[in-house]
Task: inverse folding
């Protein structure tokens, strides 16, 4: 995992933002991680982006807190976040990866409506983060594979956001390109 220090800083900031219930800041931190994950294409970093984004959406929707399994889920989530931070501080990447798997596992072990809603948030978060990674120039196929979604899900979402409508062939006018070239070669 190449971005250990940056990921550690982001996770510590997430923990701080959680204390303030600042879901907007948490969502923005997720976008920071997406930029990094687009460069390195590290599946663990991408998983962290999804986890952070999902957490922001879960906190944003306060109605989840009324479900009977909420306190246990939230406690496990915070403990896992602390363990992720601790494992990065100790440079224990195997433990870090294990904690990512533990988060997935305790979501799978939830019951009732909370399980359905949280699983749906995570599925949508994977699609959202996939679209952001795709926006950074990673192929749709590779992005979908890394995030465990179908190309169709990604294409449908990207089509709705307008990401796929960006014309990459648009360039500066010829006079502006000549001026830039002259500045470079002066």
Result:
């Amino acid at each position: 995992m190449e971005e250990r220090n940056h990921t550690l800083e982001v996770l510590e900031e997430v923990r701080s933002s959680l204390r303030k219930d600042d879901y907007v800041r948490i969502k923005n931190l997720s976008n920071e991680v997406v930029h990094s994950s687009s460069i390195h294409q590290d599946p663990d970093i991408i998983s962290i982006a999804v986890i952070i984004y999902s957490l922001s959406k879960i906190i944003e929707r306060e109605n989840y807190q009324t479900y009977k399994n909420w306190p246990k889920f939230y406690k496990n989530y915070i403990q896992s976040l602390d363990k992720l931070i601790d494992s990065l501080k100790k440079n224990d990447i195997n433990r870090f990866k294990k904690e990512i798997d533990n988060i997935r596992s305790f979501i799978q072990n939830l019951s009732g409506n909370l399980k359905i809603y949280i699983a749906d948030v995570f599925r949508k978060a994977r699609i959202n983060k996939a679209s952001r990674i795709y926006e950074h120039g990673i192929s749709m196929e590779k992005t979908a594979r890394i995030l465990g979604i179908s190309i169709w899900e990604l294409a449908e979402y990207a089509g709705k956001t307008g990401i796929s409508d960006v014309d990459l062939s648009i360039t500066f006018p010829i006079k502006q390109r000549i001026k830039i070239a002259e500045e470079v070669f002066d």
User: Anything to note?
Assistant: The chain has one domain: 4-185. The chain has nine helices and no strands. Residues 4-185 form one domain.
